[in-house]
What does this fold into?
Amino acid sequence: MKILLSEAQILDRVRALGRQIEADYQGKPLTIVAVLTGSLILLADLIRQIQLPLRVALLQASSYKGATTTASDLVINDAFAPDVAGRDVLLLDDILDTGHTLSTLVRHVSERGALSVRTAVLLRKIGRQEVHLEPDYWGFEIPDAFVVGYGLDYDDDYRHLPYVAVLDGPHAS
Ligand code: XMP
It folds into this structure.
C-alpha cells in the first residue's frame, strides 16, 4: 500500500475547504447531506471547520452490480435526510469517479425541493469522468487508481486509516 495523501495534508485541505464553505454560506440555511458510508470521516472533520449554524443529513446510494447496471440502477435511501425542502444543500461525497452517483443525487435532492444544491468531494480521479459535473468544492485530484482510507474502503475494510493510500492488486481500477 502506498500513501498518496498524508493525514496532515488532508486536514490542511479540509480546513481550507471549511473556510471557503463558511464564507459562501453566511446567513444561509445550510444542510450538509453526506453520502454513506465513504464520506463519514470527511463529514466529521469538515463540519468542525465550519462555524455556522448547519444541519447534517445522510443519504445512502448503492448501485446494483448486475451485468445490466446503469446509472439509473442507483438505489437511494434518504430516510435520514428528511428535511431538505427550502434548504441550501451541500452534497458531500468521498470521491468523484465517473460522476454518475453525484449527478444522480444532485437531481434527487433538487426534486425534493432544495433551494440550491452544491457538491463537495475530497477526491476526484483524473480522466475517469463520464458525466459532466464540476464539483463546487474538492480537495485533491488523484491518478486513476483504487484508493482506500479516510472513509474509503475495499470490501468494507481500511476506512479507519487516517490517510489515503493506493491499494495494489486485482481490485485496482
Ligand atoms: P462514481 O463513478 O459514480 O463513483 O463517481 C463514486 C463512488 O464510487 C466509489 N469509488 C471508490 N471507492 N476507492 C473507493 O473506496 C476508489 O478508488 C473509488 N472510486 C470510486 C465511491 O463509493 C464513490 O462514492
Notes: Residues 7-24 form the longest helix (18 residues). The pocket of xanthosine-5'-monophosphate is lined by residues 38, 93-102, 146-148, 152-153 (CB under 6 Å). The mean pLDDT is 93.
